[in-house]
Each structure stands twice: as structure tokens, then as C-alpha cells.
Amino acid sequence: MSALLKATDLVKEFPVAGTAGLFTPAKKFTAVDQVSFELQAGQTLALVGESGSGKSTTARLASRLIDVTSGTVHLDGQDITSLQGADLLEVRRQVQVVFQDPFSSLNPRHKITQIITAPLRYQKRPMPGGARKVAQGLMERVGLNPEHVDRFPSQFSGGQAQRIGIARALAVGPRVLVCDEAVSALDVSVQAAIINLLRDLQREEGFGCLFIAHDLAVVRQIATRVAVMTAGQVVETGERDEVFDHPQHEYTRKLLAAVPRIRPEWEAARRRNAEKVKS
């Protein structure tokens, strides 16, 4: 089966400010270094790692929010790395992003109807029954009161605001949903509700989800596969349970050791694996 989204040898370099001289080029910082992964339709691939590991930059490269230094990104077999104009606009429709801070991505001066239907206006897509009706339908799909479409973002809680962000992303029927730390700013109980919502929507729509997170407890709940990143590189990739129960890389084991143990069977599996490594 061909991958819905495939990244191959992605590299992203940023110039280091103040390092360029009259005869010397600016030094460069490599934020992403030869990263490759595949995402299937209906699958959730979690990119995990500490802050500064390069996972969010990787997500931005994969969604064409920033340009690659080298490497390629394929969407359903098509190389989208250098697309521009109308072709890139279509990529924007197929790959939508849900950001970490829901309020920073919602215009505080716009009503929810305007916010949710913004991608449809940008894509010049029809809105049967009008913008308000479309927004109400999307509000209902993400578990919000459809009669609240005339409110402003400040009138919602953090969890509700993130649901609005998800509704906006769903408006254009994406094939890939990129969630960049989409639940990290929320309370634990709200996190669980958003994760359940994403899983339900994925079952209904069949989209692939690239889920960026540093919280392994959250990743365990939602991921199908896991790619562990550190220092801009992927050091381990595998099925979720295999990575969690039988981590191969030392960095992965350190990440898991730092997670509070809530499930006894998870802790028991970790200890058994640790004993095998020592022996």
C-alpha cells in the first residue's frame, strides 16, 4: 500500500543570526536532519521528543508551511515539495493543521462562523445554505452547541476553542490532519475528550493524522505508529506498542522512564525490558 504522506530525507537549516561576515557565509543550524517517515490513510503517526528535538519543524515541512532545505514530501504519490500557486492551494486543502494554542490561531475579532468557514472562503469553495449553516454543522460535529456560532473566541474555554480549531480544519475535507501539540495546553480531562473526538472523526473520515507531542501518555492513547526524534533526527520508529513495550534506542528508554506510571501492565513491561537490556 502506497503511503498517503511520505517524507524522505528531510533537512531544514536556519541561518544563525550575526554569524555572517564580509567574506564569510552565515553559519547554519540544522533543525531537521535526514528525517523520513510514512503515514497511511486512517493511521495516526506520532512524532515525539523533547522540546527542540525538531518534531514541530518536521510537521511544518511536511505540511508545506515552510520550505525544505533538501529532501522531498509526497502526498498520495505526488511530489509537493516545490509546488506553488494553484497546486499549492490544493495541498493546503488536503493537509490541514491544528495548532497548539487554540486562542492564538483564532481571530478574536471574528465570530465563530467567520473563523470556521475561513478555509472555504480561501479555497473559494461553495457553502450550501450559507456560511452560518455550514459553521453550525461543523460545530455540531465537534461536539459544540451549533447555536453558538455567533459568539467570539473569548466566550469559549480552551477545550472548546480547540474544538473550533478542529472544526475549521475539517471544513475543507482534508486527507491529512497535522496536530502540532494540539492538546498540550489543555487540562488532562479535556485532553482525553479531544483525543476521543479526534479518534471518532478519524474513523468517520479516514484521514491520516500526524500527531506532534512530547507527552508519551497522550501518545499511547492515540498513536498507531510512533517516531521518536532527538537533535533533529528520528532515532526509532515502530508500532506504538512495540516502541512503548520494547524500546530499542537509549533515548526512547529515557523518555519512557520519565513518564508517570499509571497503568501497572505498562510499568511491568518496561521493567521486564529494562532487565533484558541489562542482561
From TrEMBL:
Q: Which Pfam families match?
A: ABC_tran (PF00005), oligo_HPY (PF08352)
From the UniProt record, give one GO term of the biological process aspect.
peptide transport
Q: Which GO terms describe its molecular function?
A: ATP binding; ATP hydrolysis activity
Name the domain of life: Bacteria
Family of the protein in this entry: Belongs to the ABC transporter superfamily.
Q: Which PROSITE patterns match?
A: ABC_TRANSPORTER_1, ABC_TRANSPORTER_2
User: What region holds the ABC transporter domain?
Assistant: 5-256
- Please provide the record's keywords in A-Z order: ATP-binding, Nucleotide-binding, Transport
* Designated name of the protein: ATP-binding cassette domain-containing protein
**Which PANTHER family does UniProt cross-reference here?**
D,D-DIPEPTIDE TRANSPORT ATP-BINDING PROTEIN DDPF-RELATED, TRANSPORT ATP-BINDING PROTEIN
Native organism is Kineosporia babensis
